[in-house]
């Protein structure tokens, strides 16, 4: 689909809290859902329990409060770097969605679109994997996975379908929880990836295995569209890469040499995308189809999967090199990236349904393209703000205590306290 506590950059930063609020896109506030894995984190400056499951987008909180959870154990400070990265990644996601209708008439817009699509979701997903490292089948983490990922998926899949029926004048559009529409695929993917986390910790070569699975998916047209499994499997290597990442790896990409090297790399990527724009379909970057479905021979799927993974990993590292390490004005918005991700989809799709890009020719001019980009960034920023989070928390991070049995160990501790 990511300012650090130590602004000096070369010292090892403390391990960020392994708690995942409700996305992969794509942090620890008081835990309430599980999605933050790649998307949201709690606002910078809050604390989390050392053992809590991280994050989407990437995302799990277990409560709606932003106050630190008191456990009697030392707590760890949120690393601003990851909140900054999530916010900047979601801004790129929104801008790329705004560029899509402009790519037919502008080769420059198409080059920007392809370049950003190479790394924005991989970056989001990698962060989700990084904050999922402590995930296991413990009951509280499974609850956060349900309330922070599965429940928002159901709510937004239904909401998107109803929106399409009326905005696109398509009353026959069915509600299908097996066929994610538009952005909800990320929630399905995060749910599956997180459930498989314990397995990836067991195998000896997790990343090569994940790449092999992605390659096999690319050459298997019979997988079909159920649960968007093509995307789940083809993006899997980035989640697994996040799982095996260590804090020192992020310190490496923050070095000044890497930042300087990233400039010619990004420039080369833009030039390559400008050249490739008329010669290839951008559908390769969506990873939702097999090679055969894109009209290419099966072996092209093998080549493109490995080549795109390499390009995405390099550009993601270059992106991380430019993410601020200190607390910024937008750091707090990193906790609301899942909100921005899912909510901006209504405007992104609505702009197509209502013909905005067809009715206003000025949008297809260079100045119009710049203005569209700024508007997209401003809108998704607004949607990540705390007031919007409070307004939609019922859908993104529901508590749902009524739906789960009380944990026997927790009940025993409560009884022991009351009798003491």
UniProtKB/TrEMBL annotation:
UniProt organism field: Streptomyces durmitorensis
Residue span(s) of domain Acyltransferase: 81-384
Entry GO MF terms: acyltransferase activity
Pfam families registered for this protein in UniProt: Acyl_transf_3
Extent of Low complexity compositional bias: 51-65
Keywords: Acyltransferase, Membrane, Transferase, Transmembrane, Transmembrane helix
UniProt-annotated stretches for the region Disordered: 1-77
Region forming the signal peptide: none
Transmembrane helix in keyword set: yes
Protein name: Acyltransferase family protein
UniProt entry tagged with the keyword Acyltransferase: yes
Transmembrane segments: 81-99, 111-132, 144-163, 175-193, 205-223, 229-246, 258-276, 296-322, 329-348, 368-388
């Amino acid at each position: 689909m990511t300012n650090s506590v130590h602004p000096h950059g070369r010292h090892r930063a403390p391990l960020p809290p392994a708690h995942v609020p409700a996305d992969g896109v794509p942090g620890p506030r008081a835990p309430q859902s599980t999605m933050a894995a790649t998307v949201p984190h709690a606002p910078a400056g809050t604390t989390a329990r050392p053992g809590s499951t991280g994050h989407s987008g990437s995302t799990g909180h277990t409560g709606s409060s932003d106050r630190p959870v008191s456990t009697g154990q030392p707590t760890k400070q949120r690393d601003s770097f990851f909140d900054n990265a999530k916010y900047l990644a979601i801004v790129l996601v929104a801008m790329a969605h705004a560029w899509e209708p402009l790519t037919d008439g502008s080769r420059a817009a198409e080059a920007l679109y392809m370049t950003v699509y190479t790394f924005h979701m991989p970056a989001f997903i990698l962060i989700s994997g990084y904050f999922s490292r402590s995930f296991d089948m413990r009951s509280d983490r499974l609850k956060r996975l349900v309330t922070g990922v599965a429940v928002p998926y159901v709510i937004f899949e239904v909401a998107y379908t109803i929106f399409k029926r009326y905005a696109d004048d398509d009353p026959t559009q069915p509600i299908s929880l097996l066929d994610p529409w538009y952005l909800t695929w990320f929630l399905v993917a995060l749910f599956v990836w997180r459930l498989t986390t314990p397995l990836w910790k067991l195998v000896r070569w997790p990343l090569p295995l994940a790449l092999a699975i992605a390659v096999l998916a690319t050459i298997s047209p019979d997988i079909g569209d159920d649960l968007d499994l093509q995307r789940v499997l083809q993006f899997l290597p980035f989640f697994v890469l996040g799982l095996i990442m260590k804090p020192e790896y992020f310190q490496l990409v923050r070095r000044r040499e890497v930042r300087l090297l990233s400039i010619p790399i990004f420039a080369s990527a833009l030039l390559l995308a400008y050249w490739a724009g008329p010669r290839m379909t951008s559908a390769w970057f969506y990873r939702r189809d097999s090679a055969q479905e894109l009209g290419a021979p099966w072996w092209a799927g093998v080549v493109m999967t490995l080549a795109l993974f390499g390009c995405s990993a390099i550009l993601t590292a270059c992106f991380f090199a430019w993410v601020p390490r200190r607390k910024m004005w937008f750091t707090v918005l990193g906790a609301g990236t899942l909100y921005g991700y899912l909510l901006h989809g209504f405007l992104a799709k609505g702009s197509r349904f209502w013909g905005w890009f067809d009715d206003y020719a000025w949008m297809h001019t260079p100045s119009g393209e710049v203005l569209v980009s700024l508007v997209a960034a401003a809108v998704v920023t607004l949607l990540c703000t705390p007031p919007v989070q409070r307004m939609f928390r019922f859908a993104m991070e529901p508590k749902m205590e009524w739906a789960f049995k009380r944990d026997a160990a927790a009940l025993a501790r409560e009884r022991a306290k009351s009798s003491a």
